[in-house]
Amino acid sequence: MSSRHETGWDGIYHRNLPKSLPWELGKPREVLMRLVDSGRITPCETLDLCCGVGTNPSYLAEKGFNVTALDVSDGAVKHARDRMRDANVAMNLLVGSFLNLPFKTEKFGFIFDFGCFHHVEIEYRTVFIMDVKRVLKRKGTYFMVCFSSENGPAWNHFRKEQIEQLFKDYFDIKWIRPFSSLEGDNVTRHFYEVLMEKLATTTLSEYKPGA
Ligand SMILES: C[S@@+](CC[C@H](N)C(=O)[O-])C[C@H]1O[C@@H](n2cnc3c(N)ncnc32)[C@H](O)[C@@H]1O
Questions:
Q1: For ligand 1, what atom is nearest to the CA of residue 10?
Q2: Which helix (H) or strand (E) holds 129?
Q3: What are phi and psi of 135, to 5 degrees?
Q4: Phi, psi of 102 (to 5 degrees)
Q5: Does 23 sit in the ligand 1 pocket, CB within 6 Å?
Q6: Which residue has its alpha carbon closest to ligand 1 atom 27?
Q7: Is any atom of ligand 1 closer than 6 Å to the C-beta of 3?
Q8: pLDDT tens-digit profile of 135-169?
Q9: How much is the pTM?
C-alpha cells in the first residue's frame, strides 16, 4: 500500500527550509500545549504520527513524554533529529508510512496527529483508524487535528458529522472542536481538533470472521 503523497513529501522537505513550510510555525501547536497544560494527558509512551520537522514531538519530549515520532519523509526526520539535538531531548525517530504502523499492539498511551489523518486516502481511512486503535493501550488517547470543511470543499476537508461517523465505532469521542489558525504562509486555515479515547470493545465493523 502506498499514499499518493509519499513520493512528493520528501521533495518538499529537501527543497525547503523548515521555516518556509506553511504548517511549520516554529513553535508547538497551541492545541497540543493546551491539552498538556490541562493535565488531561500526562507523560506516557507517545506516538507523533506524521511528525514533520519534529517541533511538536520535541515539545512533548521536553514535557517528559517518552516519544516515538514517525514520518514518511527522510528529509523531515533529518530536520526532526536536528530539532531533537537543539532541544537536548531524546526521541525515537522513524522514517515510515502511516499505513501498517511498525509497532506492537497496545504500545502507546497517547497518539498525537496534527495533519496526518487528513492525508490518508479515502480507501485506507478505516485501515488507518483500526491500526491507530490497535497500537493504543486500553483507554489510550488519540488527539487528531484535521482540515475542516470551512476551508471549502475538498476530499480531505471534514464536516463534524463525517468525523463522528468515521471514528465512533472505534473511539469514545470526547470532543470535536473547530478552530482557525494563521499558518506559516499567512493564510488562515480551519481545523477540527478531536479528542478520543480507545473503546475497549471490538465493534461489529472490526469483527473479522475466522481472524
Ligand atoms: C501537513 S504536514 C504536518 C507535519 C506535522 N505533523 C506538523 O504539524 O508540523 C503532513 C506530514 O505528513 C507526512 N506524511 C504524508 N504521508 C505520509 C505517510 N504515508 N506516512 C507517514 N507520514 C506521511 C508528510 O511527510 C508531512 O510531514
A1: 25
A2: helix 125-135
A3: -85, -5
A4: -85, 50
A5: yes
A6: 52
A7: yes
A8: 999 999 999 999 999 999 999 999 999 999 999 99
A9: 0.93
How far, CA to CA in Å, does 7 sit from each of 11, 12, 17, 201?
A: 7, 10, 18, 37
Mutate which of 9, 24, 94 for ligand 1? The one with the most ligand atoms within 8 Å of its CB, which is 9
Residue 184 CA to ligand 1 centre (angstroms): 16
Look at ligand 1, atom 11, and give the residue with the nearest C-alpha. 50
Give 166-199 pLDDT, tens digit per residue: 999 999 999 999 999 999 999 999 999 999 999 9
The verdict on residue 120 lying in a domain is: yes
Task: Please give the distance of CA 123 from its chain centroid, rounded to a whole number.
Answer: 18
Q: What are residue 47's DSSP bridge partners?
A: 68, 111
Give the confidence band of 211 by pLDDT, cuts at 50, 70, 90: very low
Q: Is there a domain that residue 20 lies in?
A: no
48 is in which domain, residue-wise?
A: 6-13+30-206
Is residue 96 a part of any domain in this protein?
yes
Any atom of ligand 1 within 6 Å of the Cβ of 73: yes
Bridging pattern class, strands 188-198 and 66-71: unpaired
| Per-residue pLDDT band at 100 (split at 50, 70, 90) | confident
CATH of the domain at 200: 3.40.50.150
- Is 18 among the domain residues? no
pLDDT tens figures, 62-83:
999 999 999 999 999 999 999 9
- Chain-wide mean pLDDT for the chain? 93
Report how many domains make up the chain: 1
Ligand 1: residue of 116, 123, 145 to mutate (most ligand atoms within 8 A of CB) is: 116
Q: Do 52 and 71 contact (CB within 8 A), yes or no?
A: yes
Q: Is 5 in the pocket of ligand 1 (CB under 6 A)?
A: yes
